[in-house]
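#help-structures

NK: newbie question. if I give both the sequence and a SMILES, will the prediction place the ligand too? trying with nicotinamide-adenine-dinucleotide
OV: yes, paste both and it writes out the complex. here, I ran yours:
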Amino acid sequence: MKVLANDGISQSGVDALKAAGFEVITTKVAQEQLETYINENNIDALLVRSATKVRKELIDACPSLKLIGRGGVGMDNIDVQYAKDKGLSVINTPASSSASVAELVFAHLYGGVRFLYDANRNMPLEGEAKFGALKKAYAKGVELRGKTLGVIGFGRIGQATAKVALGAGMKVIYSDPYMEKAEVKVDFFDGQEVSFKFESKSKDEVLQEADFITLHVPAQKEYVIGKPELEKMKDGAALVNAARGGVVDEIALIDALDSGKLAFAALDVFESEPKPELKILMHSKISLSPHIGAATNEAQDRIGIELADQISSILKG
Ligand SMILES: NC(=O)c1ccc[n+]([C@@H]2O[C@H](COP(=O)([O-])OP(=O)(O)OC[C@H]3O[C@@H](n4cnc5c(N)ncnc54)[C@H](O)[C@@H]3O)[C@@H](O)[C@H]2O)c1
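OV: that's the protein plus ligand as structure tokens.
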């Protein structure tokens, strides 16, 4: 059986699929040539990340396809229900990247409280001429230890972020209307484990009590953080969005940063992705990354292996 991994797959995934007897093709076929390629090569399984689109027309035109796999979480680029109705299996790897996204949140948070996002912009320009002035400008850092992290959306990534926060000595509170209670196990390098029990608070309570808010909700119809929510946050708080562009109202966010209500914000995802607004990109109080939450070697390895396991059990099981 043939697997086309059109947006790439880790070597560990290729190895696991080959060991299970699959032929793995990692050629990147252009979207408009995909139909012809799949049909000419009798592809059984098409694996994608976020780049390749798997729409109704492609599904209809490629009768050899039995399975569509998404390495990662969001499946906006796949007509999932249509494919399932046509009898195809549609799989993803929801758990593989949680720890990587959580660590990126903390990269932004630790960078934020010590102004690294701004220092890294200004040191190359003025570090030589104005070292003393920059040292003074970035002197009032704060520690994360002892502060409160408010997590909105306490699923896989929200809980993985809580683990890092607990390890860093933070208090964690969360709000998730669909997850009343949760237990988070923090495991250490030597096998020790500590379990923490949590209960969901209202969104308002989290907004009012947290020093830092991080969002881990799925795409929504309405903003999760807009002007009214920003107003409820503590003065000098900070906001991280590594969930989805569109869950934060970016215009309201800029206002909150400009007025000094928020100390800083960190964005890995953007309302107008893949062309974020210049006002966001140029803002001196925003720590930026180009949607790389899941982009670690470890997550890609786990994604490849998780896909290979699922494909083997579905197509060969
Ligand atoms: N930055 C990245 O590269 C990256 C990588 C992977 C996933 N993500 C995104 O992270 C988000 C979370 O992923 P996950 O795997 O943790 O999903 P998940 O389904 O495990 O958790 C989402 C949680 O959000 C809760 N929720 C839904 N609506 C809510 C609301 N309005 N308020 C509060 N909670 C709400 C759900 O009950 C659920 O517990 C998704 O949007 C996903 O697309 C980003």
